[in-house]
Amino acid sequence: VNVREIGNEPWGDPYPGKDGYHQLLIGTVAACREYYGSNNPANWRIELSLAAFRAHSSSPGPFGEQFYYVDEAIPDSLKQYFGYASIHPYAFNIPQFNAGNLSAGVTETPESDDGAFLTFKNMIDWKNQKMPNAKVNITEFGWNAGVFNDGCGALGESTQAAYYMRAYLLAARFNIHKAFVYGYTDQNEYP
What we know:
This protein is an alpha/beta fold.
């Protein structure tokens, strides 16, 4: 292990909120400084990553999450200690998702301008402006292959496989450091 993501999706209730998350970041940086005996993160064995936030909109999330925008996630004084910004760009239809209509599911293609997968480009833009030495990781993305579950439509395995390949190629094209598939609605009998 060489990267520690501080939180996964720490927005909304009952999560820590902005103040609580800032305290987690402050405590993590303080612990690394003390443990490694250095104020310079280049001298630490472990690198730090922000949790997954979004960079394409500063409005509340579809469930009323108030702490969802990456710029609120990290105080300027701590940015130098974090080498990664994370995002979970599931390919929900953005207008429907922002309106709270999750029954549309994760069905947009990776390249769709209406889908959220390409919002990783907003995270890259944010990173370039606010944390230019950091890298962007896609720590969750995916499409459901087999069953309707949690409002996410089934695409079939062939379509899912094609979307994964296209998503990885897009991530590589835009210099995403790492991308991880997460089948959050997949089940053993329906991959």
